[in-house]
Design goal:
Length: about 270
């Protein structure tokens, strides 16, 4: 496994390449940078947190503008949603996703340039920020991510996270999109949400405010905190620098895809 977090190995590229849109007809001028190199350039910017225009040309990934334009085109074409479903289906076919439970949590990030889905952060001296809401399976595979303003309560996104899990194919029968149970801390305490989860066939395992935490819940929920830590190793996700929400969402998809593929890898061994 490459030690460079922005490297895209042959195995991952074999999964990514088929979901990319057809390239436009070649126009006069220099030969365009390959999609694989552009993807590595995008990952390099995400990992280092540098501005797009500072992407070093000597790395061979093309200019920052080229990589940014490729990211925009792929996001508009729905590439990252398709890639996410493809990788989840591969895991499902191998019996990997742990559908016995899913975990929800949220993490605050600074929003340097403001933009949609930003607001005063309750943990950042009221500076503008966003919040990443995440639901993952029992092993830490990201199933759905939502970005909101930093001052949005976690509990308001519970059902949106669950309902946003895509149908996962890969096995005989109907695609699956519901875990058996949903684990959450006291920030997700809501009787209406508990009833709604029961209606969806999901057992809510959520601590109640004013009562001791459910025994062993913190240990089981550790996977979602670990997934956040892995995603936020990429500085441009830990600090939101994209004013456009669609592109910030796209960068989340770029990073989450390899995390799906490498579910069983140790964190220190993960590449892209």
């Amino acid at each position: 496994m490459s030690t460079k977090p922005w490297a895209v190995d042959d195995e991952l590229w074999a999964v990514i390449e088929p979901v990319l849109p057809a390239r436009p007809e070649r126009s006069p001028g220099p030969r365009p940078v390959s999609d694989r190199l552009c993807l590595q350039g995008i990952l390099f910017v995400l990992y280092t947190g540098i501005p797009w225009q500072q992407l070093p040309l000597e790395l061979g990934f093309g200019s920052g503008q080229t990589c940014w334009q490729r990211l925009e085109r792929w996001q508009q074409a729905g590439v990252f949603d398709r890639l996410h479903r493809t990788l989840l289906a591969e895991l499902n076919a191998a019996g990997e996703p742990d559908w016995s439970r899913a975990c929800v949590d949220a993490s605050h990030v600074r929003a340097k340039k403001g933009g949609p889905a930003t607001g005063p952060s309750p943990v950042g001296r009221r500076k503008r920020g966003s919040k990443h809401h995440l639901v993952c399976d029992g092993g830490g595979v990201p199933l759905h991510v939502i970005t909101t303003a930093a001052n949005v309560n976690d509990v308001t996104q519970t059902l949106a996270l669950v309902d946003g899990i895509p149908p996962v194919a890969g096995r005989v029968g109907h695609p699956r999109k519901r875990p058996d149970a949903l684990l959450g801390d006291k920030g997700y305490d809501s009787n209406p949400n508990r009833r709604a989860l029961h209606e969806r066939g999901i057992l809510p395992v959520i601590s109640r405010k004013g009562r001791p935490d459910i025994k062993g819940l913190g240990k089981l929920r550790h996977v979602v905190e670990q997934t956040f830590a892995l995603l936020h190793r990429f500085k441009r996700l830990a600090i939101r620098r994209e004013r456009r929400l669609d592109l910030h969402t796209g960068t989340q998809g770029v990073r989450a895809a390899p995390r799906c593929r490498l579910r069983q890898a140790r964190p220190q061994d993960e590449g892209a």
